[in-house]
Specification:
577 residues; mainly beta; 6-stranded mixed β-sheet; 7 helices; 32 strands; globular; binds CU-O-CU linkage; binds copper (II) ion
């Protein structure tokens, strides 16, 4: 049987459950990474991807809370710069290690080496990825997992764990995508060819062919060691932790395990009040831990599936197998792979988001804010180019990184006029804008140190009629409390509906079509922090803003992080450090 053949090929790739056993105190973990383009087949079609030390996705970093991570990164891309962002790590005291080109540092030049040194202060499921141009779309990403500190315990029990890093894949290279997105008229990148689980997927075929609708051929995984799915091997009647993170360029995902319930216990490195679901949404930039118990018929295997949400899916589902031992991994599940809720069933998504609440005992938000900033998200035109704008400003990064230019008061590095805190009162978020023109900008939201900031993300209609899209917004340098979600235009009376009791702490939050999302955070981390939509093409088209707080308190910025761009050369001869 063809379906047996592929499974036999997978046997060497089986993911073993890992049990934490190492007994070690806080320490520095050193890594030496070469970043370079490699040939790879993420989905059976050979492509060029950005690999780390010859592998895709990049190596998983595993550490304990309190450890120092030291990554010595050498750029072997030959003709382009590179940086790596440690998504979800707050970089307390090390804002220069945040890995955002033109914000926290200069891109690392070809042939150069840069050392990222930072503390992973909080246990949780994180990841890392490129943050220059569209290098994340080119495959520059990997997992970063932080276990609880020595002698501490998680607030839940499990017998074993697995880690799934979710992404989406295009056959068109990231450079061509960049050109397409920057063209007049816009050439949209379209839907991904393949969904990847730990960098592995199947294009135009299905490993569950006998169930696939529309019918797809059975995958021939000959030579498929790069893309054959990794199987999750479990024993009956045990509880497993499944770590999930999404670094998709575009797709919002829905994940389910055939026949099994999932209990959500962690979101973005923060514990949540456990709740049980049959399927769950994961937006780009988010991470979760779920627990599942292997309490189903132990003579069977089960599918784990991911599906596209919030956009009309044109991509077949991503699949892997839950293999109950001692069954053979080649035993095809009798249940079909779980099917996602309808892609535009937003009520289903909203109900999931609203279930996420902080675990009792988590830090609570201050009761009042010092400043509220409302961000209107619109699709716009500038000289005929299609862009995204926030309060009518489409972000274009400067040549000199903000962190150094603000810290040392370099003139003319960026526009020092404050960008707008709000949008015109009469703007109708439910309709196409009467005048959709906006402007480019690189101004900074200067936030007073140690104050409480409320952010209201306001969604709106795009350039097309009756259309509004999902945007998962991610904040660097902080976790924020998600105070609430709402429909239509945010108004003063919505403040009464804010959740002051148990809002979840997160670093990424979604705005639903035609809705708003309110966030609160305290500006207690000196640095310059990006806040942006985590959809790669949207950020590329200007969908982000920059926050700066307490920058005068930042000490010791490595010179390599500063010396680039129009004004950065001033650092070359100076004794700033
Ligand atoms: Cu994972 Cu600025 O993003
Ligand atoms: Cu977006």
């Amino acid at each position: 049987m063809a379906s047996l053949r592929w499974l036999l090929l997978l046997l060497p790739l089986i993911l073993l459950e890992s049990f934490s056993s190492s007994v070690m105190a806080a320490k520095t973990r050193h890594f030496k990474w070469d970043v370079e383009y490699i040939h790879w087949s993420p989905d059976g079609e050979e492509s060029v991807v950005i690999g780390i030390n010859g592998q895709f996705p990049g190596p998983t970093i595993r550490a304990r809370a309190g450890d120092i991570i030291a990554v010595e990164l050498t750029n072997k891309l030959h003709t382009e710069g590179v940086v790596i962002h440690w998504h979800g790590i707050r970089q307390l005291g090390t804002p220069w290690a945040d890995g955002t080109a033109a914000i926290s540092q200069c891109a690392i030049n070809p042939g150069e080496t840069f050392v990222y040194r930072f503390e992973v202060d909080k246990a949780g499921t994180y990841f890392y990825h490129g943050h220059y141009g569209m290098q994340r779309s080119a495959g520059l990403y990997g997992s970063l997992i932080v276990d609880v500190a020595q002698g501490e315990k998680e607030p839940f029990h499990y017998d074993g764990e697995f880690n799934l890093l979710l992404s989406d894949w295009w056959h068109k290279g990231s450079h061509e995508q960049e050109v397409d997105l920057s063209s007049k008229p816009l050439r949209w990148i379209g839907e991904p060819q393949t969904l990847l689980i730990n960098g592995r997927g199947q294009y135009n075929c299905s490993v569950a062919a006998q169930f696939s609708k529309p019918p797809l051929p059975q995958c021939k995984l000959r030579g498929g060691e790069q893309y054959a799915p990794q199987i999750l091997r479990v024993r009956p009647n045990k509880t497993y932790r499944l770590r999930l993170a999404s670094t998709t360029a575009l797709a919002s995902l829905n994940l389910a395990i055939g026949g099994h319930k999932m209990v959500v216990v962690e979101a973005d490195g923060n514990y949540v009040q456990p709740f049980s679901v049959q399927d769950m949404d994961i937006y780009s930039g988010e991470s979760y831990s779920i627990l599942f118990t292997t309490d189903q018929d132990p003579s069977k295997n089960y599918w784990i599936s991911i599906n596209v949400r919030g956009r009309e899916p044109k991509t077949s589902q991503g699949l892997t197998l839950l293999n109950y031992l001692p069954n053979s991994a080649s035993k095809v599940p009798t249940l079909p792979p779980p099917i996602a809720p309808l892609w535009n069933d937003y009520n289903h998504s909203k109900s999931f988001s609203n279930k996420i609440l902080a675990l009792m005992g988590s830090p609570k938000p201050p009761r009042y804010n010092h400043r509220r900033i409302i961000f209107l998200n619109t699709q716009n035109k500038i000289d005929g180019y299609t862009k995204w704008a926030i309060n009518n400003v489409s972000l274009v990064l400067p040549t000199t990184p903000y962190l150094g230019s603000i810290r040392y008061g370099i003139n003319n590095a960026f526009d020092t006029r404050p960008p707008p805190d709000n949008f015109p009162k009469d703007y109708d978020v439910m309709k196409q804008a009467p005048n959709s023109n906006s402007t480019y900008g690189n101004g900074v939201y200067m936030l007073k140190f140690n104050t409480t900031i409320d952010i209201v993300l306001q969604n709106a209609n795009v350039l097309a009629k009756d259309t509004s899209e999902i945007h998962p917004w991610h904040l660097h340098g902080h976790d924020f409390w998600v105070m609430g979600y709402g429909e239509g235009k945010f108004s003063e009376k919505d403040v009464k509906k804010f959740n002051l009791r148990n809002p979840p702490l997160r670093n990424t939050a979604v705005i639903f079509p035609f809705g708003w999302t309110a966030l609160r955070f305290v500006t207690d981390n000196p640095g310059v922090w990006a806040f942006h939509c985590h959809i790669e093409p949207h950020l590329h088209m200007g969908m982000g803003v920059i926050f700066a707080e307490g920058v005068h308190l930042v000490k010791k910025i490595p010179k390599e992080a500063l010396a680039c761009g129009l004004t950065g050369k001033m650092f070359m001869s100076s004794k700033h450090n």
